[in-house]
């Protein structure tokens, strides 16, 4: 079966600004695909190119296997929701939701249109606001109307650009769950743009990480989390961020930190495609990656082969039921997230023992001018 959405070698520049730099992307039929990247990475341009609102200078966009070159946006059969939503402010929320269904393309019978609008409005929690002019709704409510305008349409694909960005945290979380449920029920292919990694992990059947107009890595949440392509991808997921500790491979295949403050006797990179390269040679400059939730206080959790580090408490910060503890390890700061009770007795400057299972360590090369470090890209002797 051809991909629902396929981009090949897409180039798009605005004057001297390259927005898409040979972008390749495949979204499967019925898939909920999240495109994640920092501001300016090319996310919106990707959506607009799929929708036909921007023409690439080179490369192709295909929908269901058909090349869309020269096909007008209206004829592409995709429904797009922008972050800056275009609604009719003087018309009611109901009218705004129903108007796409009155277009000659759908011309749904009135009763069916009413039913569709009602169902989408209930799903988005705006059922009670339908009579109100959109100009008199809050930003968050307007955003839900804009999203509703997309979801009411029968479409071959939904293109959603940060559709939850104006909602408060609680509503965002609730809407995420709803969106996931709609996706599952409708099985309509969805390309969803976000710069929020939590959202991408929660929603995406697969995730594509975009940087400077190119896809850096595509994968399931497990692949992206456990086998990040490089330190840029590793840093993009998880709050607090992954710890990256610079150092060198020792003669015995261990790791010594750049300031020689601590050593890890043996580094065994986790198996998997990204790590199947041979271990770096002694002297190679590398970075050890360890996620804050994979570190524990004390040595009690250590099974055989566990790794222990000794540092001093720098600062603690309560995050709800957990506490983030920042530990000074020589010149490095290392962050860990532990149950609040475990961190209760910690005082600044007190010595502290940390432990981590060896399989939780990720090994990257040093970041350099060629880009973020990858697992064993240029292993040198
Ligand atoms: N109409 C335009 N004119 C000139 N430059 C543009 C235009 N639209 C986008 N760009 C540039 O193209 C690049 C990609 O922009 P794009 O909006 O696709 O990024 P994005 O990942 O969606 O960012 P954000 O998360 O901030 O919305 C940026 O450098 C941006 O400044």
UniProtKB/TrEMBL annotation:
Q: Which residues form the ABC transporter domain?
A: 5-237
Q: SUPFAM superfamilies annotated for this entry?
A: MOP-like (SSF50331), P-loop containing nucleoside triphosphate hydrolases (SSF52540)
Q: Matching Pfam families, A to Z?
A: ABC_tran, TOBE_2
Q: Does the keyword Transport apply?
A: yes
User: Molecular function (GO) terms listed?
Assistant: ATP binding
Q: Which organism is it from?
A: Streptomyces chryseus
Q: What's the protein here called?
A: Sugar ABC transporter ATP-binding protein
Keywords, A to Z, come to: ATP-binding, Nucleotide-binding, Transport
């Amino acid at each position: 079966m051809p991909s629902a959405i396929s981009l090949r070698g897409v180039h798009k520049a605005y004057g001297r600004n390259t927005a898409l730099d040979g972008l390749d992307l495949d979204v499967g039929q019925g898939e909920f695909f999240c495109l994640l990247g920092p501001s300016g990475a090319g996310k919106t341009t990707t959506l607009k190119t799929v929708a036909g609102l921007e023409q690439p200078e080179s490369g192709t966009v295909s929908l269901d296997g058909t090349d869309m070159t020269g096909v007008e946006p209206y004829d592409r059969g995709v429904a797009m929701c922008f972050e800056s939503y275009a609604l009719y402010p003087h018309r009611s929320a109901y009218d705004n939701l129903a108007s796409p269904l009155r277009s000659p393309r759908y011309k749904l019978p009135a009763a069916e249109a009413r039913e569709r609008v009602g169902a989408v409005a209930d799903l988005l929690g705006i059922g009670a606001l339908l009579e109100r002019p959109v100009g008199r709704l809050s930003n968050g409510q307007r955003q839900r109307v804009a999203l509703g305008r997309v979801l009411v349409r029968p479409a071959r694909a939904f293109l959603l650009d940060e559709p939850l960005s104006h909602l408060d945290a609680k509503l965002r979380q609730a809407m995420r769950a709803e969106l996931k449920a709609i996706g599952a029920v409708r099985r309509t292919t969805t390309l969803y743009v976000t710069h929020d990694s939590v959202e991408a992990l929660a929603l995406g059947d697969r995730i594509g990480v975009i940087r400077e107009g190119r896809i850096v890595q595509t994968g399931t949440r497990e692949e992206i989390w456990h086998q990040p392509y490089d330190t840029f991808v590793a840093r993009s997921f998880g709050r607090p961020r992954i710890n990256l500790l610079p150092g060198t491979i020792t003669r015995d295949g261990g790791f010594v930190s750049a300031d020689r403050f601590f050593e890890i006797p043996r580094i065994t990179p986790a198996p998997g495609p990204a790590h199947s390269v041979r271990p770096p040679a002694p002297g190679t400059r590398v970075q050890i990656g360890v996620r804050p939730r994979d570190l524990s206080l004390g040595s009690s959790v250590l099974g055989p082969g566990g790794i222990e580090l000794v540092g001093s408490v720098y600062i603690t910060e309560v995050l709800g039921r957990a506490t983030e503890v920042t530990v000074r390890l020589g010149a490095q700061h290392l962050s860990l997230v532990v149950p609040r009770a475990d961190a209760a007795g910690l005082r600044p400057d007190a010595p502290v023992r940390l432990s981590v299972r060896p399989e939780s360590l990720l090994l990257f090369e040093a970041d350099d001018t060629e880009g973020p470090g990858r697992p064993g890209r240029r292993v040198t002797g």
